[in-house]
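Hi C.,

You asked whether I'd gotten around to modeling the 126-residue construct. I have! Everything is below, sequence then structure, no commentary in between.
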Amino acid sequence: MDLASGIRQHGFRRWYERELLHCHVFLALAIACLIGSIGAFEAASQAREPVNRWGNAAAIVICVGTGLWALRRYLFLLLYAETVAKQADCPGCGVYARFHLVTARDDGQGVQVRCKQCAHQWSIGP
């Protein structure tokens, strides 16, 4: 979900919470792939027929590839959420995450917001 529609639909705090949950799903996938690759490596070391070894080797490659992709996606989404969250402090009064959405950029990544407390406007974006 892009930043503008997420803030408009759920508010900033809920958007941030959902982004963190979303990125941690990829971390869980990376851990599951690590466990799967270890299990496939164990099975490959005990396999006697070459067909079983090749099948387990393919499972290792798939698990490692998927795990690396999931870890990369986790880090990207976490960095995005943290970058946006660091900009949620009002430069005028210092209150955190209490603002109204004013406008959104055309690409959906950046937003212009107004503080609920002091009406100061600033931009938030990656």
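If it helps when you're writing up: DSSP finds three helices and three strands in the chain.

Thanks,
B.
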